[in-house]
Amino acid sequence: MNNSFFRFLVVGVINTIVGLSSMYLFLHLFSFSYWISTFLGNIIGACVSYFLNRTFTFKSDAAMGKSMIRFAAVILACYFISYYLGEKIAYFIFAHLSFLSEKYAQDGAVLFGTGFYTILNYLGQRLFVFQKKYSTQSIIEKGDPS
Questions:
Q1: Do 120 and 81 form a contact (C-beta atoms < 8 A)?
Q2: Is position 142 within any domain?
């Protein structure tokens, strides 16, 4: 496991505590819909994530404006893909496993979506938003730049 992924996971723990807590508050305390709750929770978590990933995880010197636009694009793509899949998979599983109450399917969907989101988000942030430019010579001399 490379260092950027480990740092991404540390940031992810912080981001998950903030974002997931927000999602469940919106879902259960304020009775917002699944999509509104997950979207608002992700916006809150994304703000924390951007600054921590930029400074701590990827130590990026990418221009703030350009990286913010790319970050938003990755976040939105990850959000819709992940939470759509999470919802479909959770409802399928909860409908077909009799020992799971369907009233918890929405909570399961949030958890599945969060898992998918973490993986897709790391890839998008590393490869698209905070990518580092390496010369061929530095890679040859130092090995894998990760």
A1: yes
A2: no
Residue 32 region, left (φ>0) first, then alpha (ψ -120 to 50), else beta? beta
The number of domains in the chain is 1
- In a domain, residue 140? The reply is no
Q: Give residue 74's domain range.
A: 3-131
Distance, CA of 75 to CA of 132 (rounded, Å): 19
Amino acid, res. 21: S
**Among 89, 75, 84, which residue's Cα sits nearest to residue 118?**
75
Which DSSP state fits 13? H
For 77-95, what is the mean pLDDT? 94
Higher-pLDDT residue of 29 and 57 is 29
pLDDT of residue 9: 85
